[in-house]
Design goal:
This is Nucleoside-diphosphate kinase. One of its GO terms (molecular function) is RNA polymerase binding. This protein is α/β, with parallel strands linked by helices and 158 residues long. It has a 5-stranded mixed β-sheet with strand order 5-4-3-7-6. A two-stranded parallel ribbon has the order 1-2. Helix 1 packs antiparallel against helix 2. The N and C termini lie far apart (67 Å).
Length: 158
């Protein structure tokens, strides 16, 4: 029989399901970020207890592995200094003539639409250790960023 007509199972033709990628580097978190991870683990464990469908259960198990790993590796960041940009800082800055304010948080807590970017994002990395009044190169442009104010992000105060 030709190999073209032989089929062991339908599963061999499905796209492989990969694990959720773990961000590179330490898993720094704010107090709010740690609480969010813990809540996500509780939510997933509850969903797992009620999952009966095989495919849905596999997806929930994959999510559970990710979030349990993130919970186990979470490192609560110390309070940032108020005179220089660091993890947990709220930074008001000017970029390309527009003034913006962003909080620098952990990878899982990042939500750019809400004004929170991951500490591993290029913009956050460009501003790390900068002080008020400094001009920083970014995106191939000299002095593209001007740091206007540095404070503590709300997520560090939760």
């Amino acid at each position: 029989m030709s190999v073209a007509f032989r089929r062991e199972s339908d599963d061999e033709h499905l796209e492989p399901k990969f694990e959720l990628p773990i961000p590179h580097g330490p898993n720094l978190v704010t107090p709010r970020g740690l609480a969010q991870i813990e809540a996500k683990v509780i939510e997933i464990e509850a969903a797992l207890a009620h999952a009966t469908d095989g495919e849905a259960r596999k997806k929930i198990l994959r999510d559970a592995r990710y979030w349990r790993t993130r919970q186990a590796t979470a490192q609560l960041a110390p309070m940032p200094p108020q005179d220089a940009v660091a993890f947990g800082s709220r930074v008001r800055f000017r970029l390309n003539g527009q003034e913006r304010t962003l909080d620098i948080v952990g990878d899982d807590e990042a939500d750019p639409a809400a004004g929170r970017i991951a500490w591993s994002a290029p913009l956050a990395r460009a501003m790390m250790e900068a002080e008020v009044g400094e001009r920083l190169d970014f995106g191939g442009t000299a002095e593209a960023i001007e740091v206007l104010e540095v404070g503590i992000a709300d997520s560090m105060l939760d």
